[in-house]
Amino acid sequence: MNxxxxxxxxxxxxxxxxxxxxxxxxxxxxGTDTRVFRLTCCLNEDIDEAVLQDALNHIMPEFPLFGxxxxxxxxxxxxxxxxxxxxxxxxxxxxxxxxYFPGRKxxxxxxxYFRNRINLEVFHVLADGTGAFLFLRKLVAEYLQxxxxxxxxxxGADDESSTEEKESxxxxxxxxxxxxxxxxxxxxxxxxxxxRGELDEDLQGHLLEIRMSASEFLKKAREYHTTxxxxxxxxxxxxxxxxxxxxxxxxxxxxxxxxxxxxxxxSDTTRNFFGxxxxxxxxxxxxxxxxxxxxxxxxSFKKQLTEEKIRETMNSYAALEHNFAxxxxxLFLKDIGIAFxxxxxxxxxxxxxxxxxxxxxxxxxxxxxxxxxxxxxxxxEQICVSSFGDNMMIGEVSPYETHGVMLNFVRRLSGMGxxxxxxxxxxxxxxxxx
Length: 434
What we know:
Blueprint: E1 4-5, E2 15-17, H1 25-28, E3 36-43, H2 49-59, E4 68-72, E5 77-81, E6 85-86, E7 89-90, E8 109-114, E9 117-123, H3 129-148, H4 163-166, H5 170-174, H6 182-186, E10 206-213, H7 214-223, H8 228-243, E11 252-260, E12 274-282, H9 290-304, H10 307-322, H11 324-327, H12 331-346, E13 351-358, E14 369-376, E15 382-388, E16 391-398, H13 404-415, E17 420-424
Parallel strand pairs: 7-8, 11-13, 13-15
Antiparallel strand pairs: 1-6, 2-5, 3-9, 3-14, 4-5, 8-9, 10-16, 10-17, 11-12, 15-16
Helix pairs in contact: 2-3, 8-9, 8-13
């Protein structure tokens, strides 16, 4: 279904370079890894389509990049302003369906709804999770204001930034030439243990949503003298070991963790601005004590999350873009090279886990909102963690028809005394909204 129209909107005749992270996204979109992520807001009432459309129309001028289409240049892709208007639709496609189609003129996001859920799906060239959540939070706030006659509210400090600040390329702003491509060699990983299963014959993503009490999980993290992020990664690694044979334990479990660079460099951009650290644990070193995994993960986080290391990693990503030889390679050759590099890099990662943290909304809106959840398409397995109020949500996506590792993850949570609720797109949706 066509969800875009071209009336009542004039393009601003602008074009935008892709940020550093976005440059490789179109070349990575293959099969189940559509490079699409979904942010969901579950309300305590059913959605009014007409009001949601009005809300979307109202906020679009604040996010000019969301009104762009993706074009191919000689050396890089770029974004071009368009006259296309986004149209809200009731959900009628599988989750994380491709958004970008080469040669097709269409927006790079969609707004869908189903019963009481608002779903924002975004092609990763536009934004990272932090930037896209700003868009969704603005959309939800505008919807509730229009629907219930609530007074306008600022949704947070990031809402006060200008349009220019929101659309800025932070990678370019903070890049330093002092470090370069050599840092990338230190980021290479050995072949990691891979999650396996029966692939979906239609190459569609299988989603699992896990809900638990945020306060219960935080209490457990404090009992272990650690953070929510460290405990989540350690539990996932333990769940992997529960699935592994003795022979498989010779391969490390590697969890790739995106890091929000806004925490280290002041930026209000809604575009991609993240780095990645890899947390590794060799399963043959596990002797049955969960503390062994936890200590290793915590030490790895501590070593890699220093400002110096984060700066080196960011500069290494940006160095690829600024390297003259790389710049001069025609785009079709870059596509081939990036796709090959991506496949090679995926062999060094078991799973990617993004911790989006606490999602905040003004108190006037909280009675209307149940929770937020995030999902990201993946070649193997991707996990997104977020919280709203006392609802801690884990969204898992994989191309497999079973969720063996995540079921072990849930068993370990239950073993800690944490109550868990599951929902999945593998079954009828009647349970999803309870």
